[in-house]
Amino acid sequence: MTVERSRSRFSRLVSVVVPPIAVGGVIIGVWYFFSYVVLDSDRRFLLRAPHEVVRKGFLDRENLGEILAGLASSCRVALVGLVIATILGLALGTLMSLSKVLERALFPYAVVVQAMPVLAIVPLVGFWFGYGFSSRVFVCVLVAIFPIVVNTLFGLLSADSGLHDLFTLHEASRATRLRKLMFPAALPAVFAGLRISAGLSVIGAIVGDFFFGQGEAGIGQLLKKYASRLQGEQLFAAVIVSSALGVAVFLVFGWLARAVVGKWSEESRGR
Amino acid sequence: MSDLSLRGISLTFPDGTEAIANADLDVSRGEFVSLVGPSGCGKSTLLRVASGLLDPTNGSVSVDASSVGYVFQDPTLLPWRTTRRNVELLAELRNVVPAIRRERAERILATVGLTEFADHFPRTLSGGMKMRASLARTLMLEPTVCLFDEPFGALDEMSRERLNGELIEIFLARNFAGVFVTHSIGEAVFMSSRVHVMTSRPGRLLEPIEVPFAYPRSPEIRFTPEFAAICGRVARALREATS
Ligand SMILES: Nc1ncnc2c1ncn2[C@@H]1O[C@H](COP(=O)(O)OP(=O)(O)OP(=O)(O)O)[C@@H](O)[C@H]1O
Ligand SMILES: [Mg+2]
């Protein structure tokens, strides 16, 4: 029994771990193939081999230090931006859920903010507010706020009408209804929104930094610098680091959602 | 004066749907009446009017609104609360002192046989257990009038018969005024002292059919000829009501 159990667990682990590793291996193989077979040696700078990227991008003290400092800077911007977007988004979503008039008045502008391309926002923000920390955070807030507003609003409105009847029947005040019914009902949606917004905030921080091109150097500026200097190894390392940040954010917020609502939410089960 | 008294109730929805036409219903403590009728005839609407969730277009409702318990067709539990905390909900909304609330919840959980599942979340409960929790939640406020809208409609025959028996026991212990909506004639006759048949929309209430069996009733009375005869009368009234 125990043996069988542990074996099935082992085989399950294998079936989870092996396929992505296999694909990763194929990708690295294709990468080597292009780097050494497709490209001539004088054009190899376009795609350095994986071990070169690791050696120069990650193992070289100075390069790694620069990339990590950039990463730290972008993380700070993204985090502060996300916190502000979350606070504002929750407040706006809640206000809109309380009043149909407010919802009608504000929703179109939330859509406008969402529809504005980052490319259009960034120069304008720089032009108005300069290239410092607060401008970068502002960009993050603009790109990250929409999913939180929308998910808060729809989450708050998602509570079952039978439950609303129950609260009405027992003369619950508006505050009680909000606290005991609508907010908890909104949690799964809010966390789903938070996960999306966190990813957007990271992108906002990197893109903002890329276009500002001045002030404290984040990942965006490094990407630009490495590309213009043809430093392929560092460029790749920076790309890998920024994707890793995105993945980490996705995982952390997924875990956070499961920790908060996983016990009771039907949706987040088994994910 | 009855504990629940509906006089000349009519209700037309804003979209023009005429749901109820001139319905009268009186139920006092110690009476358990059933309400049967074709689908869409206005039974749920009548309960909503009785509970105060809906205002009638015409007619008057006389009931102490704060002592009405309402068990919906769905269990409508809060998914983020454990069984125990769900059972405590209405007592919280009505500001029952925590100590009393907890003590009462403990007792009622035992009554409906959910003590073991007190700390489970609704998603891990079976349909029957969810309905028991919903019932327990309503009992927490010790209502004098209890409205049941097809509470066991979604359950299998066996759970249903068990819950029928248990609900009657609770009724006998607590002596509230019960109004029980159902689609099942057998269930209506077994549970109640009086069966009201409602006509197709707009719903009117026909002359009630008395069920003379004394409580407590054994499940076996379902197989007696007298029981069958009353079911036959209800079925005939229903046919009449639908045509
Ligand atoms: N909010 C509403 N607006 C308009 N019409 C409604 C509304 N609620 C119910 N109705 C209509 O009123 C009629 C009675 O509905 P009700 O839900 O009371 O029927 P019911 O007897 O409970 O039916 P069932 O046995 O299927 O539960 C139906 O025709 C329904 O379509
Ligand atoms: Mg109904």
Key attributes of the depicted protein:
heterodimer, A: 271 residues, mainly alpha, MetI-like fold, 83% helix, B: 243 residues, alpha/beta, six-stranded mixed β-sheet, three-stranded antiparallel β-sheet, 7 helices, binds magnesium ion
**Could you spell the SSE succession of chain A in H and E letters?**
HHHHHHHHHH
- The CATH first-level class of the largest domain in chain B comes to Alpha Beta
Strand content of chain A: under 5%
Structural class of the secondary structure composition of chain A?
A: mainly alpha
Overall 3D shape of chain A: flat
CATH architecture field of the largest domain in chain B? 3-Layer(aba) Sandwich
Q: Give the distance, in angstroms, between the N- and C-terminal Cα atoms of chain A.
A: 27 Å
Rg of chain B, alpha carbons: 18 Å
CATH architecture of the largest domain in chain A: Orthogonal Bundle
> Segments of chain B where pLDDT lies below 50 for 5+ residues?
none
Biggest sheet descriptor of chain A: none
Structural description of this entry:
The complex is a heterodimer of chains A (271) and B (243). With 271 residues, chain A is mainly alpha-helical. Chain A has helices at 2-38, 50-59, 61-98, 100-115, 118-129, 133-157, 161-169, 174-212, 219-228, 232-261. In chain A, 83% of the residues lie in helices and 0% in strands. Chain A is flat, with a radius of gyration of 23 Å. Chain A starts with a helix and ends in a 10-residue tail after the last helix. The model of chain A has no long low-confidence stretch (mean pLDDT 90). Chain B folds into 2 domains: 1-20 and 30-64 and 145-243, Rossmann fold (3-Layer(aba) Sandwich); 76-143, no CATH class. The two termini of chain B are 34 Å apart. Chain B is globular and about 50 Å long. Chain B is 37% helix and 20% strand. In chain B, helix 2 (83-93) crosses helix 3 and helix 3 (98-111) packs across helix 4. Chain B has 7 helices and 9 strands. By secondary structure, chain B is of the alpha/beta class. The interface between A and B is medium-sized, with 23 and 21 residues. Bound molecules: adenosine-5'-triphosphate (ATP) and magnesium ion. The site of adenosine-5'-triphosphate has 13 residues of chain B, from helix 1.
